[in-house]
Amino acid sequence: MAALVATPRRAGSPRGIRDGEAVTGWIFTLPVLLILGVFMLVPVLMALWVSFSDWSGRGSPLSSDVGFVGLDNYAAVTTDGGLAERDFGVALRNNAWYVLLVVPLQTALSLFLAVLVNRAVLRGRGVFRTAFYFPSVTSSVAITVLWLFLFSTSGVVNAVLARLGITGPNWFNDPSGVLHNLLGALGVQSGPDALTQHGLLGVTWWDWLAGPSVAMSAFVIMAVFTTSGTFMLLFIAGLQNLGPDVDEAAMMDGANGWQRFWRITLPQLRPTLFTVLTLGLIGTWQVFDQIYTGTQGGPGKTTLTPAYLSYQSAFLSQEWGRGAAIAFILFVIIVLMTILQRWILRERR
Amino acid sequence: MNRTTRRLPRKELAWQTGLYALLILLALVYVYPFLVQLATSVKTEADAAADPVSLIPDPLTWAAYGRLFLRSDFPVWFANSAVVTVLVTAGRVFFDSLAGYALARLRFRGRGVVYAALVAVMAVPTVVLLIPKFLVINQLGIYDSYAGMVLPLLVDAAGVFIMKNFFESIPTSVEEQARIDGAGTFRIFWSVVLPMARPALVTIVILSFQGSWNELSHFIVSAQSPSLTTLTKGVASLASGQLSQGSQYPIKLAAAAIMTVPVAVVFFVFQRRIMNTSQGAVKE
């Protein structure tokens, strides 16, 4: 707008100074559009086709000898009752427990860290912020390698536990479910028939309720460790945007620190909380790097995730249609989760 | 700050002491794993297994580093990661700012559509794109080449957004002056606007550097030959024990430590800006 006011001085060209803008605009955005189009949009369409085809990985998926198989690939992982369905069910169970634990834990811990760092009125705020944030900048591969060492049978974690008189588990080699172990400690070794006779996606209800395996729990701890720093920064930013007025007024009214946090600070942090939960939900359904580097789905498939299963089906088992189908189901899950979470948070406003 | 320190009432002082004790304890928990990583990388394998908690190697040995650099593919991985990271970062700085500028300043038919398309692209989870990306890279005949590894990463929608937001936040007067003086749009962009955009460009550099240095899945689906292996892929293969028998933790942790160094350096150099970057990201 300001441009139009400033330009009339240049007389002569009746059509104004912004002539070539349409062309320039497209030229400037062309590289981005081209690359995103070719490596994002086209691939998604191609994969959508592959998920409906019987392509075996040889030649081009667009060649004429590749057949259309309808929903077969989707059926294979959801209704056929075979191994593929069971694997998908197991992967969903593993990842669901992972999400159920990681999202609340990382949100709570990062909020806790943010409040602590924010309350520190003396020196060293920056040092603490750096210490908590540093794990977030390192690569997931490097962290996984470190984790394999920390949580190895004779590793650091078990050595520390031993000093406390606790015998640590075999972490990355232990496929037993944490909830099943707890029940086992209470003397419950097997589930009631109602749970063991029926199930979903080839996995009995009893096995759905196994909880994350001990191996998966190590990944849960790792995710909380690496992401809490990033989210802490978001919460610190949110806290610093809050005016002190309301808090001070509440203090006058005699509310203690605990009440002020729950009744005043937290409700005001809702937008940040929403961002953190959304990013957490999206991120935790995409676990891939850690599994690829660390366990390749083992032990006993208890760290298998849909993302890794999709990769494994396509690149290792050459079941490309099935791999693509899993990827699209995962996509739908992520979208649904985000919408659901948006809806839940909106209801309570 | 100093004044606050002196005037703290006793109750508040006790509170703060407890707070600091807790903060120090937590910071130790966060930092200790990385110290263990460094210490173990200069331990012998027997020492690493016998006393994993200790931060003092006994005896101290550089064998793991010697092994990595002199008798493994590690230097190749490092070089590949460096090449890819430099190319991707350069590409993103240029193309993201170019497109960001067009979206912020130039008025052209279809701008709204371009903007909407970028929003849509940002919403697609990357893991879903593994198979799709491979299909296209394969179809284009650039599988197992630097082109296949670099081209798809050369622009990113998030970077375009950061640049667009930045350009919208600076006044147009300087550009208009240059325009009146007869400079063309690209000329204005290159010699007038870009120099002003340094803070945003640094943000793009940091994000691209971290993103491409730490990228794993894209390189898994875009190349397979050993000569094109990047650090992430190489170290991941080390983790599953491809270099040798036994646990070999000193070597694995040395490799992980070295691959952390470049991002750590960038982190400490640009620390303040990184912290602010993530803060700015919320407001989008």
TrEMBL record, chain A:
Gene Ontology cellular component list: plasma membrane
UniProt record, GO biological process: transmembrane transport
InterPro entries documented for this protein: ABC_transporter_permease, MetI-like, MetI-like_sf
PROSITE patterns (alphabetical): ABC_TM1 (PS50928)
Domain ABC transmembrane type-1 as annotated: residue spans: 92-341
Coiled-coil intervals: none
Family (UniProt): Belongs to the binding-protein-dependent transport system permease family.
This protein's name: ABC transporter permease
Native source species: Promicromonospora soli
Lineage: Bacteria, Bacillati, Actinomycetota, Actinomycetes, Micrococcales
From TrEMBL, chain B:
InterPro entries: MetI-like, MetI-like_sf
Membrane topology classification: Multi-pass membrane protein
Residue span, ABC transmembrane type-1 domain: 78-270
Chief localization: membrane
Subcellular localization, as worded in the UniProt entry: Cell membrane
GO annotation, cellular component aspect: plasma membrane
Pfam families: BPD_transp_1 (PF00528)
GO biological process, one term: transmembrane transport
Membrane-crossing residue ranges in chain numbering: 12-32, 77-101, 113-134, 146-167, 188-209, 249-270
Keywords attached to this entry: Cell membrane, Membrane, Transmembrane, Transmembrane helix, Transport
SUPFAM superfamilies (UniProt xref): MetI-like
Family from the record: Belongs to the binding-protein-dependent transport system permease family.
The protein's name: Sugar ABC transporter permease
Organism name: Promicromonospora soli
